[in-house]
Design a protein that fits this description.
This protein is α/β, with parallel strands linked by helices. The chain has helices at residues 2-5, 12-21, 31-40, 65-72, 97-108, 119-141, 151-160, 164-176, 187-192, 194-200, 203-209, 217-233, 243-264, 288-292; strands at residues 85-90, 112-115, 180-182, 270-275, 298-301. It has a 5-stranded parallel sheet with strand order 3-2-4-1-5, sandwiched between helices. The radius of gyration is 19 Å and the shape is globular.
């Protein structure tokens, strides 16, 4: 059931990432096909990052290569005045996310805002939202009255709704005339969004979610931000045996980094809103943060807005 593999993973962003990675092929993809795909995407994988079929060792070589280049250039996250790029890590579904993001955007006044969402996702959500809301109401009618307050159901509601990151980028643009841009690839959305109606919002799936661990959504989100900060000092590991998946993740992160670099070319200061796990260091070196470290970006987590006046 979706309730185990998708709707309520231990870490929403991590499991989402694992599902997204499958868009670039399965674990049986040959090394040759992987290299061809990488070349077609315009990415360069160094000898240190190359994986052969059957290998089990994570890509640990050159882990901090980009970070070291950034530090040597004097562009550090501790020097915000020199940072043309602001990476804002979010917890998807944060109930205070809109207000927090607006505070940070007003504080840093970027010339362009980018969001971890694809154009396909925006179009598909706009067409399907009435149907999703109808299915959601029908499913909730079959559940106990207090079901809507369960952690899993609240996260599901946020998942079906327009991401707050999109809403705040649009509203900030309308208020201050600052352009915004959806940055993500369309492949993940093409795979996952059609599953919402037939799996995620199915009454049996929502009933199963009620048997999962429960806590206030606000507490869950606070724990995720704490986890994000811990990850900055202790790089994250991917599951053993996920080598092909790691390559696919590396490709996606590099493509996102490439798009952000393109945005920086003539946009002044850019602020990017995206899931915090893209901003954490990974042992295999495959993260947006590591791919952009030579630019000396400023990294913030969304709850830092709580200290803003």
């Amino acid at each position: 059931m979706w309730s185990v593999g998708w709707a309520l993973p231990t870490s929403y962003s991590a499991n989402y990432q694992r599902d997204v990675n499958n868009d670039f092929g399965g674990t049986g993809v040959s090394p040759v096909r992987r290299r061809l795909f990488v070349r077609a995407c315009g990415c360069q994988i160094t000898t240190e990052h190359r994986l052969e079929a059957g290998a089990t060792k994570p890509m640990t070589d050159s882990l901090h290569a980009n970070l070291v280049r950034g530090w040597e250039a004097g562009l550090t996250p501790e020097n915000p005045a020199s940072a043309p790029l602001i990476l804002i890590g979010t917890v998807h579904g944060d109930p205070q996310g809109y207000e927090r993001a607006m505070k940070l955007l007003q504080r840093w006044q970027p010339d362009l805002v980018t969001v971890e969402v694809s154009r396909f996702s925006l179009r598909y959500r706009r067409r399907q939202e009435p149907r999703w809301q109808r299915l959601l109401r029908q499913a909730l009618e079959e559940l106990p009255a207090a079901s809507a307050e369960h952690l899993a159901i609240r996260r599901l509601l946020a998942q079906v709704a327009l991401p707050f990151e999109v809403g705040v980028a649009r509203d900030y643009s309308r208020r201050y005339g600052t352009p915004w841009r959806p940055l993500d690839l369309g492949g993940p959305s093409r795979r996952h969004l059609p599953r919402y109606a037939r799996e995620l919002l199915a009454p049996e799936n929502m009933r199963a979610l009620l048997d999962t661990e429960d806590e206030p959504l606000e507490d869950y989100v606070a724990k995720e931000y704490r986890r994000a900060r811990l990850a900055c000092d202790r790089p994250l590991w991917r599951p053993l045996g996920a080598n092909a998946e790691t390559v696919r993740c590396f490709v996606r992160e590099r493509l996102l980094a490439r798009r952000l670099r393109h945005c920086l070319a003539g946009s002044g200061r850019v602020a990017h809103l995206g899931g915090w796990e893209h901003l954490a260091p990974w042992r295999d070196g495959a993260s947006l943060w590591q791919g952009l470290a030579d630019l000396g970006p400023l990294r913030l987590f969304l709850d830092e807005a709580d200290g803003e006046n």
